[in-house]
Write a sequence for this structure.
């Protein structure tokens, strides 16, 4: 009877030691953090400056205006100037409109099309040539302001025609893959980047 009790006590002690060390080993193993949609969304939104493309340009254009009276050009009312300046267009993807879904080992990242985020003209680079003013039709600040707005629109259209927004979307895809490769997420998951219409 005594040997039976000793045997049971030894077995119970061995079981307790086994459970203790087994639990310790499981607890000490480094657990992979769970990837969630919100975690990825926050990580990518914080890197939104990296996911944009800068288009630097120099432009030269002529402004000309003259007064007309019943379809006839009024003499001595012509005003004009030629202007050159440097500018930059920032284009990219608005990551606040991004949609991320995770299913098994696949991450789907849906991005809106790229768009122009900012357009600035470097005021220090502005040079005016061949300025012609008229007493009867003087140059005004509004002339310069309207001309600048018009030129910005023309430069943006030209840049889009040359593929600026396509390049910005491609840059966004590449940047996202680079960011996800830092934690090797791209090695553990299949990542699909989808362009929304």
């Amino acid at each position: 009877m005594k040997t039976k009790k000793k045997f049971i006590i030894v077995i119970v002690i061995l079981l307790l030691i086994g459970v203790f060390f087994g639990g310790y080993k499981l607890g000490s193993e480094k657990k992979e953090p769970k990837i969630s949609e919100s975690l990825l969304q926050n990580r990518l939104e914080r890197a939104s400056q990296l996911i944009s493309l800068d288009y630097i340009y120099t432009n030269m254009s002529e402004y000309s205006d003259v007064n007309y009276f019943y379809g006839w050009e009024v003499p001595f009312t012509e005003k004009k100037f030629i202007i050159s300046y440097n500018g930059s267009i920032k284009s990219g993807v608005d990551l606040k409109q991004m949609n991320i879904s995770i299913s098994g080992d696949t991450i789907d990242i849906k991005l809106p099309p790229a768009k122009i985020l900012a357009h600035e003209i470097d005021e220090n680079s502005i040079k005016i040539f061949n300025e012609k003013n008229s007493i009867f039709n003087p140059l005004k600040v509004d002339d310069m302001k309207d001309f600048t707005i018009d030129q910005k629109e023309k430069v943006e259209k030209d840049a889009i025609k040359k593929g600026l927004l396509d390049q910005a979307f491609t840059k966004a895809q590449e940047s996202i893959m680079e960011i996800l490769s830092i934690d090797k997420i791209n090695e553990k998951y299949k990542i699909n980047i989808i362009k929304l219409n």
